[in-house]
Design goal:
alpha+beta; three-stranded mixed β-sheet; 27% helix; elongated
Length: 107
């Protein structure tokens, strides 16, 4: 008795076609913009469905960016420190009053 198996699904994404696609078609254009002096708390509140934000000065010049990596590093302490439970959360929350320029990546 042979089992009827569904045919193997093909990947829905063709990597070759994707590699030839112009970057402008897939790049993000609408970033959350913050000033270097905006508070980290404001960043956390506004970042809802985005993975990064750009930090610009008053003239609109790019000063840096903040990715999800910088936010994770803010919340999770370096491996040199061991903080457990609520103490770790309280430590992270106490930093939220700092300006975003303290955690942005200037590259």
């Amino acid at each position: 008795m042979s089992r009827d198996r569904p045919p193997k699904e093909r990947p829905k994404l063709n990597i070759l076609k994707l590699s030839k696609m112009p970057i402008r078609l897939v790049m993000e254009k609408n970033f959350l913009r913050l000033s270097p002096d905006d508070k980290i708390e404001e960043l956390i509140k506004k970042l809802e469905h985005q993975t990064c934000t750009v930090v610009t000065d008053d003239d609109g010049k790019l000063r840096g960016f903040i990715s999800i990596d910088e936010i994770i590093n803010l919340i999770i302490p370096p491996s040199d420190y061991i903080l457990v439970g609520l103490d770790a959360i309280k430590e992270a929350h106490s930093d939220w009053d700092r300006p975003v320029k303290d955690i942005m990546n200037p590259r």
